[in-house]
Amino acid sequence: MANYTDLKYFCTLVDCGSYTLAAQQLIVTQPTISTAVKRLAREYNDPLVTQKNRKSSLHLTSTGKLLYQKGQYLLKEIDAFDRDIKHSSERKIRIAFSGEAGGVYMPPIVHKFYQAGILSLLEEHYERSAASFKNLETGKIDVAIYSWNFPINDPNYFIHTLDKTELVIIAHPNHPLAKYDSVSAKDLAQERFIARSPGYLTRESLDILGHKGNFTPNIIYTSKTMELMIDLVRENMGIAFVMDSSLKSNHNLKVIHLKNTEKMYAYMQIAMRKSFVPNQYQQRGIEILRNFKGHLLSR
């Protein structure tokens, strides 16, 4: 059975593609990496990695590829296991509040913890939805409340959908598009967009919209916040693709829907690791989160 350190060195070598880079990342010497790989090669009676010369690319044997795939999975499980054991005695629940869902559902969740007298359990994290799910996977957080452009369904987590909101175009009332109630994706090919940076739901959705309309969105400004993006549309600087739920009743902007056949939606979900076993202190908070209802499920 491969030991943890050798497996980590091997997988890092494959990820980096060179002994030099792997050694630098792990802060060890190159011979240390080489010795670990040789130990694994002897154990599995296979060279695992081949290289024509010191300057050529690394190539994995079929056994090496399998060891890498299973090794990655095992290392993640071990790291998550280690974090969970260390976390088991803490009186904290680590929750990532991400994107629109994080902003919408943080206040009621904080209030429920306050009512239950367990507000001190909350350890809030603020990050993008993609990052929060990654940290959920690696055990850095226990619960993620996030938004994404399709409902995530993964058997490794307890997941339920809190809400579903339509993605819409917003424009200044004087913008040429404002005379329409609905448009198709191809009608937007020549428009100028205000958008968030890559990794945010609305930006990912805008890229999908461009694909539907067979165009690359002309993004003239990348906004750091949703509020600024809406304000710039209010200044008639361009249009934006946003979640309908992020608009307030007094936004004074024209909301334009996509044609029925092209409508897109954002899903707000809460996900909890099935591997997370709460201690006696965390249990009350976990029960609140498991039974928490969003707008969709409470209507």
UniProtKB/TrEMBL annotation:
This is Malolactic regulator. Residues 1-61 form the HTH lysR-type domain. Belongs to the LysR transcriptional regulatory family. It comes from the Bacteria. One of its GO terms (molecular function) is DNA binding. PROSITE patterns: HTH_LYSR (PS50931). It comes from Lactobacillus delbrueckii. InterPro entries: LysR_HTH_N (IPR000847), LysR_subst-bd (IPR005119), WH-like_DNA-bd_sf (IPR036388), WH_DNA-bd_sf (IPR036390). Keywords: DNA-binding, Transcription, Transcription regulation.
